[in-house]
Amino acid sequence: MSNGNGKKRNSGEYFTISELAEQLDISTRTIRYYEEIGLLNPQRTPGNHRIFTKKDRARLKIILRGKRLGFTLDEIRQILEMYDVKGEPEQIKLTLKLAHEKLNEVNEKLEDLKILRAELENLIRKLNRRLSEIEAEMEAQVQ
């Protein structure tokens, strides 16, 4: 099927790197990088162009979701490899384990941020108080 300018329309079975990049709002360089480090393994045409399957697209979506959730690429690789080797239940167990670890990290960071916020608020109060004292002293000297 043609789109009017001689190019075949995507049947939804296969995607070019440009189509995936546009659909998922990422750069083609990002997709190439994930291929380079072995997270994606697209097929190649006789002209050596990358052709991605629906499975590749799903893997890429998992990679992007993992990155958004703060997982490292190595953790994402473990999740993907677990699915490839042992199937969904094992992947779910590993993902749960990693998600709990990530949640603990986030909670620790939140506690650190709460402490930092309290320290900054305290510093601001002290500096405002000191500034008021200095301004009062300067005003008293003028009178």
Q: Descriptors for this entry?
A:
elongated; 143 residues; mainly alpha; disordered N terminus
Give an overview in words.
- The chain has 5 helices and 3 strands.
- It has 143 residues and is mainly α.
- It has a domain at 1-68: Multidrug-efflux Transporter Regulator, Chain: A, Domain 2.
- A 3-stranded antiparallel β-sheet has the order 1-3-2.
- α3 (54-68) packs across α4 (73-86) and α4 (73-86) runs antiparallel to α5.
- It is elongated, with a radius of gyration of 27 Å.
Given as residue ranges, the uncertain stretches (5+ residues, pLDDT < 50) are 1-9
Beta-strand proportion: 5-15%
Radius of gyration using CA atoms only: 27 Å
Main beta sheet, described? 3 strands, antiparallel
Mean pLDDT over the full residue set: 88
Shape category = elongated
How many DSSP H or I helices?
5
End-to-end C-alpha gap:
90 Å
Structural class: mainly alpha
